[in-house]
Specification:
The structure is a single chain. By secondary structure, the chain is of the alpha+beta class. The chain is about 40% helix and about 15% strand. The protein is built from three helices and four strands; from the N terminus they run ββαββαα. Helix 1 packs antiparallel against helix 2. The radius of gyration is 26 Å and the shape is elongated. The N and C termini lie far apart (about 55 Å).
């Protein structure tokens, strides 16, 4: 269903910049009279910038600076959470099983290749903790995506800079697994 009739430029006030126009359609007609138009291009504004919730709107440079810092730390937290979940997963792995399988070797010989399989129990505290942390990670990632989708340049920079800083500070602890059977180093 097309809603192009709601975007008729003759119904939009001309006193606001295009990214902050409000529809003046008659009440009860479609979406109501307070529909806010979102910017679909990047902009560097600090007035009337919605942030995740309808009552959370940035209107001053100070509010934008505070939102920048908060979003920056939220993105850092997201990166730290990803690494923390990996560390917890490695610590909680309980069952280790080795599987050997024959593979053809040179000159028609048969070699045995061994693989390590690691798992964890479904009904355990570590798995429950991983599940809760996964839900938190998903929610935070969607918040960051929605913040970026405001197309506000300041907030987009905060997301990217926070994610980069978080990766820098947390990912160096990431374990690097080297497969000794890998021949293409």
């Amino acid at each position: 269903m097309s809603h192009d009739h709601h975007m008729n430029s003759s119904t939009l006030p001309t006193t606001h910049p295009p990214e902050h126009q409000h529809s003046t359609a008659a009440p009860g007609h479609g979406h109501g009279s307070d529909m806010m138009m979102m910017a679909m291009t990047f902009h560097f504004s600090y007035e009337n910038v919605p942030l995740l919730f309808s009552g959370l709107t940035i209107n001053t440079p100070g509010e934008m600076a505070g939102a920048f810092v908060a979003v920056f730390f939220l993105a850092m937290f997201y990166e730290g959470l990803k690494i923390a979940r990996e560390c917890l997963l490695r610590k909680s792995q309980v069952s280790i099983r080795y599987n050997s399988m024959p593979v053809p070797g040179p000159n028609g010989t048969i070699l045995m290749e061994t693989h390590k399989t690691v798992g964890q129990q479904m009904l355990s505290f570590p798995h429950l903790l991983q599940t809760v942390l996964h839900v938190i990670q998903v929610v935070v990632s969607y918040f960051l995506m929605l913040i970026f989708m405001t197309y506000n340049g300041y907030l987009c920079i905060a997301v990217a800079a926070g994610a980069g800083t978080g990766y820098f500070f947390f990912s160096w602890k990431k374990a690097v697994v080297v497969d000794i059977t890998e021949h293409c180093h």
